[in-house]
Amino acid sequence: MTTSTYTVKGMTCGHCVSSVKEEVGEVAGVAHAEVDLATGLLTVTSEDPVEDAAIIAAVEVAGYEVVNRS
Length: 70
Ligand SMILES: [Cu+2]
Prior knowledge:
By secondary structure, the protein is α+β, with helices and mostly antiparallel strands. It is built from 2 helices and 4 strands; from the N terminus they run βαββαβ. It is globular and about 30 Å long. The protein starts with a strand and ends with a strand. The structure holds copper (II) ion. Copper (II) ion is lined by residues 12-13, 15-16.
């Protein structure tokens, strides 16, 4: 399994977290998406590495912005 971490800007409540988790969770290859609201950290777990662009696009669909990839 591979884990990638992103910093998401703009989330303010549990609904924001749910939206991001839902959209990112639908990206092909993603096994699990976890969000920490306090830090804005999005942790994506996948069997094989998933393209950053796909994760960034999913976060944008949810209405937020990836400001960092670590
Ligand atoms: Cu919200």
